[in-house]
Amino acid sequence: MNILVINGPNLNLLGIREKEIYGEATHDDLEKFLHAEAKKLGVRIDVFQTNHEGAIIDKIHEAYRRKFSGIILNPGAYTHYSYAIRDAIKAVDLPVVEVHLSDLESRENFRKVSVIREVCDAVFMGKGFLSYREALEHLVVSHADQ
Length: 146
Ligand code: DQA
Known about the structure:
Layout: E1 2-7, H1 19-22, H2 27-41, E2 44-49, H3 53-65, E3 70-74, H4 83-91, E4 96-100, E5 122-125, H5 129-142
Parallel strand pairs: 1-2, 1-3, 3-4, 4-5
Helix pairs in contact: 2-5, 3-4
The structure holds 1,3,4-trihydroxy-5-OXO-cyclohexanecarboxylic acid (DQA).
């Protein structure tokens, strides 16, 4: 099983940005964590971070072409308004799991809206890095045949 993790805008600034919300750990730490968890679960992962909407869409298309088993997607603020990312998820026949480090339900009103949720397989949020682990476990349990 091979899984693609896509992290969107400003997640490269983990460890610098709003530490009271996102914590002290960096994106490098997140990558190391993800590789260690994937190894434990016996799956292959690729991790990609970009600050650009189109690059997220291109990666979703690429995951489909390269026959990945699923995608873990944290689109950052694009979560709240990118119909283009929603359309890309809908276009490909791949399970996509929405992930957030913070709990969107307890933050500003605009963050309570996710325009991608309806087209995602599941959502995990509010647990920092552990949200990603839950997403990995979800894909492994629900889509082990892919
Ligand atoms: C985020 C939440 C978004 O609202 C925000 O714009 C981010 C990060 C999270 O992981 O908690 O950039 O997706």
